[in-house]
Specification:
- The complex is a heterodimer of chains A (349) and B (228).
- In chain A, helix 4 packs parallel to helix 5.
- With 349 residues, chain A is an alpha+beta fold.
- Helix content of chain A is 19%, strand content 39%.
- Chain B contains eleven helices and no strands.
- Chain B is globular, with a radius of gyration of 20 Å.
- Chain B starts with a helix and ends with a helix.
- Classes of the chains: A alpha+beta (349), B mainly alpha (228).
- Chains A and B meet through strand 7 of A and helix 6, helix 7 and helix 11 of B.
Chain lengths: 349, 228
């Protein structure tokens, strides 16, 4: 669906990436701030010209530095949702949504209804909440019938409640509108919730590309501070209304998570930061922690500091970060059987 | 306050010249302002300097330059004359002089407001399939309306006050090229003309204040329309 090879130099910093995604769902481009994510989607949209490379979207060649092809932005058919919405302040919602050159007027009402903004059509953008603005921006991009939807941290300026609300809409876009989405973020929450495919960007390079499950360094946002995370794909088993505890099955058995309500989806994804995992040699009794897994140490990674990253296998990979002192005291080494403890409250869901 | 026919003539002529110079100059001013605000090209600083020249030159010099480029016996002057346009010693010449003098002020005001339009909105419009002309007409222009209004009022006010270039280029002919400042000047040079000069002085203040008030109303309306 999308196939790119891009090079762009900004003097001290340069982007040099190559990736392709045939996912019809949401492909997340994740990485810390300043890693080049936004530059990459700006190059795809045509707002920034790459120094070298080529861009294919749905088999259409949009840019090729060798063949000297550079399709103008206006003809690329890439719907772009910006961080700040960028609604036109002097036009009402209806005029904003129909601004696109080939906007599908017949679809206006249906699209507005799916995005929950049909009652806002005559309002001016200044009278909309942040979440409503972003939904209008999404509608505006969808109505031009784009080949792909590019989203640049569309939730960054919203409060957590609005983020949740908008994520529900974004999650459904590929299915409802049959359009692939490229989504830039550095939030672990958004990666877990939205990604069908994850491309991790660091220092202008692709660090990994594939399924969002597994283990890797988090993108370094405020929610994980660049800590190593283990990500599990789980299926919801039951939900305890009284205590707000969600029980889910995954490759390593059963896991309990704190959740405000039962998730709408039956498949969810959760993450655990390595620094939130405790290692014990015996099965602890009379302890508040209820997620206790039996596992085997696979390997230890030292990074020169006073902490050690212990990679374990509990049926699924689960990393733990402990002090070097503890690692020595417990005699941790590959092959050793251990118990791994994760508090219900420290799960990122 | 009763104005004599001669005084009324001067007032009416001034307003006519002011309105015409804004009407003729506005579109070129918007075009030049957009060019200077949004494009980079060779000779941009030369064009910029050229537009601003009348602001810093003595107006008499500007008037003289108009004579030697548009005068009756110059190539450009005779070319214009052959298609029926004559500037020498008539009100159209006064419009040309006012236009040249007020253009830099109009371009400046409009340019500043175009530069203040968020380019990211223009980028957003581009991703939605809009070409440069459509972006200009639907985004840039409507969002710079406040600057266009204040530029027009500035230009109009500058035309009302125009003296040096006008008197040099088209002389001081009552009923033809004698605008308000020219009439006022003539009265001060005439024995017993103080009273008439004072009356015209009051009239010019009234016109200027009215123009400012009108621009304020329009600018406010435009601003609320954008923000609402």
């Amino acid at each position: 669906m999308i196939d790119v090879k891009l090079k762009k130099s900004f003097g001290a910093f340069d982007v040099d990436v190559e990736f392709s995604s045939d996912s019809m769902g949401i492909t997340v481009l994740a990485g810390p701030s300043g890693s080049g994510k936004t530059t990459i989607i700006n190059m795809i949209s045509g707002l920034v010209k790459p120094d070298e490379g080529c861009i294919f979207i749905n088999g259409r060649l949009l840019f090729d530095s060798v063949k000297n092809i550079n399709c103008p932005v206006a003809h690329r058919q890439c719907g772009y949702i910006f961080q700040e919405g960028r609604l036109f302040p002097h036009m009402n919602v209806r005029r904003n949504m129909l601004y696109g050159k080939h906007s599908d007027r017949a679809m206006l009402n249906e699209t507005a209804k799916l995005l929950g903004i049909e009652h806002l059509l005559d309002r001016m953008p200044a009278n909309l909440s942040g979440g409503e603005k972003q939904r209008v921006a999404i509608g505006r991009a969808l109505l031009m019938k784009p080949q792909v939807l590019l989203m640049d941290e569309p939730l960054a300026s919203l409060d957590p409640e609005r983020q949740e609300e908008l994520m529900a809409y974004i999650d459904r876009l590929p299915e409802q509108f049959g359009i692939p989405v490229f989504y830039v973020t550095h939030s672990t929450r958004e990666i877990l919730r939205l990604s069908d495919r994850l491309i991790r960007i660091e220092n202008g390079r692709v660090r990994s590309s594939g399924s969002p499950g597994g283990e890797y360094y988090g993108p370094g946002s405020s929610d994980d501070n660049g800590e190593y995370v283990s990500v599990f794909d789980c299926s919801v088993k039951s939900y305890d209304n009284k205590f707000g505890i969600l029980t889910a099955g995954f490759a390593g058995g059963t896991i309990r998570i704190l959740a405000d309500e039962r998730p709408a989806e039956s498949k969810i994804r959760i993450a655990v930061k390595a620094s939130d995992v405790t290692i014990s040699m015996d099965r602890p009794e009379n302890i508040s922690t209820t997620n206790i897994f039996r596992g085997t140490v696979r390997s230890l990674e030292e990074n020169g500091g006073h902490s050690v990253l212990v990679l374990n296998d509990i049926g699924a990979p689960l990393a733990a970060r402990v002090s070097r002192a503890s690692a020595v005291r417990l005699g941790l080494k590959p092959g050793k059987k251990v118990y791994l403890l994760v508090k219900v409250v420290s799960m990122i869901y | 306050m009763h104005l004599s026919a001669e005084e009324l003539n001067a007032v009416a002529l001034s307003i006519k010249v002011g309105v015409w110079s804004v009407a003729v100059g506005l579109i070129p001013a918007i075009g030049l302002a957009h060019l200077l605000a949004r494009r980079s090209f060779r000779g941009k600083s030369i064009l910029d300097a050229l537009i601003h020249l009348p602001l810093v030159l003595p107006p008499v010099v500007t008037g003289y330059l108009l004579i030697i480029t548009l005068g009756r016996y110059t190539p450009l002057g005779s070319l214009l004359q052959s298609i029926g346009i004559k500037f020498a010693f008539n009100w159209k010449g006064a419009v040309v002089a006012s236009l040249i003098m007020s253009l830099p002020l109009m371009v400046r005001a409009i340019r500043i407001s175009i530069e203040a339009v968020d380019r990211r909105l223009e980028d957003a419009a581009r991703t939605l399939g809009a070409g440069s002309f459509r972006i200009f007409m639907t985004i840039t222009l409507p969002l710079s309306v406040p600057g266009i209004i204040s530029g027009s009022i500035l230009g109009f006010a500058r035309s009302l006050g125009e003296f040096g270039a006008t008197v040099t280029f088209v002389a001081n002919i009552p009923g033809e090229t004698q605008t308000l400042p020219l009439a006022l000047y003539s009265y001060t040079q005439m024995p017993g003309g103080e009273m008439m000069a004072a009356r015209l002085c009051v009239v010019s203040i009234a016109i200027a204040v009215a123009a400012l008030a009108v621009s304020e109303i329009f600018a406010k309306r435009a601003a609320t329309r954008i923000k609402r």
